[in-house]
Amino acid sequence: MLGGNGEVLTIGMLRHVVDVLIVAYLIYRGLLVIRGTRAAPMLSGLVLVVAIYFLAKPLGFVTLAWILENFLSSIILVVVVIFQDEIRRGLTKVGLHPLYRREQRRLVERTIEDLSVVCTRMAELKLGALIVIQREVGLDEFVEDAVTLDARFDRKLILSIFLKDSPLHDGAVILDGDTIKAAGCVLPLSFNPDLDPSLGTRHRAALGLSERCDAAVIVVSEENGSISLVREGKMTRNLDGPMLIAALMRIVVPQLSADEVRRHD
């Protein structure tokens, strides 16, 4: 056991180690948030700009160094502007961490199965549909200008909303638990330049919303009747009924045991 200066030195080293580990963990979590998104190549571009700045001065490129120095002097503002969607999504994940909030069971098993049945039926009929499953982050801003229903989930009601003659079929339906909260909702579009150009407005709207919150979004294509599930800016395409049920069980009802989920695989 060390005493005096040795003990102070040990505590100081331990403090530095913890400090480095915390910073490393924050960087790691940040990289996980942007992995697979459009922010990844933008981060690479930003690192390249910084590297050029540090090379410009030794090489005598005075004008280039001056321009980059002024640009990097506002680096915090630049990062916030460039990565605003990723920062918002990352902070949302932190706020929803189980350490702070225990996730409630938002959809009962029967509702998920009914939802799968109606989506499969709409796929057979090639009825385009956009269904948002609200989780922890509220979606009231998208409900304000929509048609408020606050109706209990019903397959026939969902099907009637997305019939081509329905005035609400172009908008999204928002589900909160087993309640149809609103219909005809207008969602923000994703402008990710790397998206498949064949994706239509519904798919871009689903991606746009999922980039901003923790909602899960189901898209039924009007062109080919395929079913897709979108979450956190990522899309899983060509799902059938059982696959959709299994995916929703994992995402929306994470408390279910692995055995319960496997029953639907």
In angstroms, what separates the terminal alpha carbons? 57 Å
> What sequence of helices (H) and strands (E) makes up the elements?
HHHHHHEHEHEEHEEEHH
The CATH architecture name of the largest domain reads 3-Layer(aba) Sandwich
* The number of domains: 2
| Spatial shape | elongated
For this entry, what is the oligomeric state of its chains? single chain
Stretches with pLDDT under 50, minimum 5 residues: 96-104, 255-265
User: What is the beta-strand fraction?
Assistant: 5-15%
Mean pLDDT: 80
Major sheet: arrangement of strands: 2-4-3-1-5-6-7
Largest sheet: 7 strands, mixed
Helical content class: 40-55%
Please, what is the CATH homologous superfamily of the largest domain?
A: DNA integrity scanning protein, DisA, N-terminal domain
- By DSSP, the count of extended strands is 7
Radius of gyration based on Cα positions: 24 Å
Describe the structure.
The chain is α+β, with helices and mostly antiparallel strands and 265 residues long. The chain folds into 2 domains: 5-95, no CATH class; 109-262, DNA integrity scanning protein, DisA, N-terminal domain (YojJ-like (1, 3-Layer(aba) Sandwich). It is 51% helix and 14% strand. The chain contains 11 helices and 7 strands. The protein has a 7-stranded mixed sheet with strand order 2-4-3-1-5-6-7, with helices on both faces. Helix 2 crosses helix 3 (62-72) and helix 6 runs antiparallel to helix 10 (241-252). The longest helix has 30 residues, at 5-34.
